[in-house]
Amino acid sequence: MRRMFHALLVGAVAVGISGVFQPVASADAAPSLEVKDVTASADDGNVPANTLDDDLSTRWSAQGDGAWIRYDLGSEQTIGSASVAWHQGDTRKNTFDIQLSDDGTSWTTVLDHRTSSGTTRQQQNYDFADTTARYLRIVGHGNTTNDWTSITETDIHAADGDGDNGGGGDDDGEQSPVRTVRVADSDELEAAFEDARAGDRIVLADGTYAAGRMTGKNGTVAEPITVVAESRGQAVIDDGQLEVADSSYVTFEGLKFTNGDTLKITGSNHVRLTRNHVRLTEESSLKWVLIQGAGSHHNRIDHNLFEDKHQRGNFITVDGSETEQSQHDRIDHNHFRDIGPRAENEMEAVRVGESALSRSSGFTVVESNLFENCDGDPEIVSVKSNDNVVRYNTIRASQGVVAQRHGNRGEFYGNFFLGEGKEGTGGIRIYGQDHKVYNNYFEGLTGTGYDAALQIDGGDVDTSGALSAHWRVYRATVVNNTFVNNVSNIEIGANYQLAPVDSVIADNIVTGDRGKLINEVKDPENMTYAGNIAWPTGSATTGVSAPSDSVRVIDPRLASDGSLYRIGADSPAVRDNGSGGQAFVTDDMDGQSRTDGVDAGADERSSATVTRAPFTATDVGPGAE
């Protein structure tokens, strides 16, 4: 492999012998390090090695949020930055993470959800604090056109004695303001909104305010507009309505919202609500946060506390235009709690999409949130469009399920569903085509039917029909999940007349003391079982007749570690006993790599560092790290 230490041309484009334009690194970049090997989560025939061939006309490409490419330096070295050239980088902005690792298993994110400039096909340098590591991984989150990640060239640079210099990306860190605007009352806040410009840091003194509308205000990656409480939680919006319209790169941080109107993000991009406390005053149905409008994309709602909602309407609603859902939005590290009592509909904690938009793609990611006592709707998180991801969330003592209600190609993985014995608690329910459900942990859930731990449901329409109907399941892939002590575990076709088709249930661990562990309420068409372990105790039965290598009736020897049930060293789930047929299952519920064969269930037997676990209140919300 190439990438020996070498000086790169600066300020001009080098032309190779073949006449192909060569990449140029930033003037801030240190010499390049030699890459010994490069691998990726997937590719479409455009292979990872293409990013190391000094040719901007070749590329690596992979589809889906979380697609990654990994560079191995062969030994630990001090890395200071990476230069990346993006396919069609002059017309698309790519969102991505850069992660470093000593062992290729445990990763540290050094740049989180950065955004490329969208103005050049040449390399852009992304700087971070000098760090010793052997591996560098770029994790893609799609671009402003689709959910593909495509890289034409990458250079990894040695130590440069510098920290993060902005590098043309979207950073979570605080930016140095161009000017600081201090406000102490509602009139001053309105004036600051009207005069807002890139780089402004609008600081609200402790007190109460009426919010208004910010329209046509645009920050930049390097110079966002930030509206922040001087003391977190002490600047209170108790009147008016906050709406950010036709704007970009605007952040609202550390505020408390107690007013009685919806917080709206309309036709905007890169708007962020972070570390706020949202507890609106409501007398009737009210949506608390609404993302809507044509041209909406890449907005983020993170590290907020949403609590005490008792009227219809959702905590967060992601809509869009009349024809297309807002795209590439991210909802993460929020604490949602105490929504209810149960309504028949329209009281989800989070709704992504709607029936009328269910043929469009959202590329929304709902990740790393904590849901507690979210009892307002049969669907705690309701997904109603294509190509969305729900991952790494913890759902505790909440009545209802995470549902793919409409749309195709949804992914649900790495979630912890903990019923804690509460009545009506469930897991995941799906309709539609080509969904992936893996690495989820389900324990102590009491629901059945619509609220089963996993409901691969029947449909009332097939491949055409009303958008509000329940679409038949095709090609669901349900693998490497663990079910422990639930009233009902895997149910198939409990509702409606059209049974699932061409689906796979593989490498799951299912234990329980009642009912059928795998309950084919309707006979599925062409269902594949492989590598599952079922262990019925008490009055339970396996529920299906399948070859012994498809559903093994054997004790998986799960043991509690005080928080979760895991496989022990002597478990029959360990090492090569799963079918191992799903390339996308690269780690487990703990974030540990699956190596030496894929173990059955959500847990891989490993001594590597655990990087994910069920959340508690200290892990999310305004005060979390």
Word description of this protein:
The protein is mostly beta strands and 625 residues long. 1% of the residues lie in helices and 38% in strands. It has 1 helix and 47 strands. The strands form 4 sheets. It has a 24-stranded parallel β-sheet that branches. A hairpin with a 4-residue loop joins β46 (558-560) and β47 (565-567). The longest helix is centred in the first third of the chain and has 9 residues, at 186-194.
Summarize this, please?
This protein is mainly β and 625 residues long. It has one helix and 47 strands. The protein starts with 36 loop residues before the first strand and ends in a 58-residue tail after the last strand.
Compile the SSE list and pairings:
Blueprint: E1 37-40, E2 60-63, E3 68-86, E4 94-101, E5 108-115, E6 124-143, E7 148-158, E8 179-183, H1 186-194, E9 200-204, E10 207-215, E11 225-229, E12 235-245, E13 248-253, E14 256-257, E15 263-266, E16 269-274, E17 277-278, E18 289-292, E19 300-302, E20 305-309, E21 316-318, E22 330-332, E23 335-339, E24 350-353, E25 365-367, E26 370-374, E27 379-384, E28 389-391, E29 394-396, E30 400-406, E31 411-413, E32 416-418, E33 425-430, E34 436-438, E35 441-443, E36 454-456, E37 477-479, E38 482-484, E39 490-492, E40 504-506, E41 509-512, E42 518-520, E43 528-530, E44 532-536, E45 551-553, E46 558-560, E47 565-567
Parallel strand pairs: 8-9, 9-11, 10-12, 11-13, 12-14, 12-15, 13-16, 14-17, 15-18, 16-19, 17-20, 18-21, 19-22, 20-23, 21-24, 22-25, 23-26, 24-27, 25-28, 26-29, 27-30, 28-31, 29-32, 30-33, 31-34, 32-35, 33-36, 34-37, 35-38, 36-39, 37-40, 38-41, 39-42, 40-43, 41-44, 44-45
Antiparallel strand pairs: 1-3, 2-7, 3-6, 3-7, 4-5, 4-6, 46-47
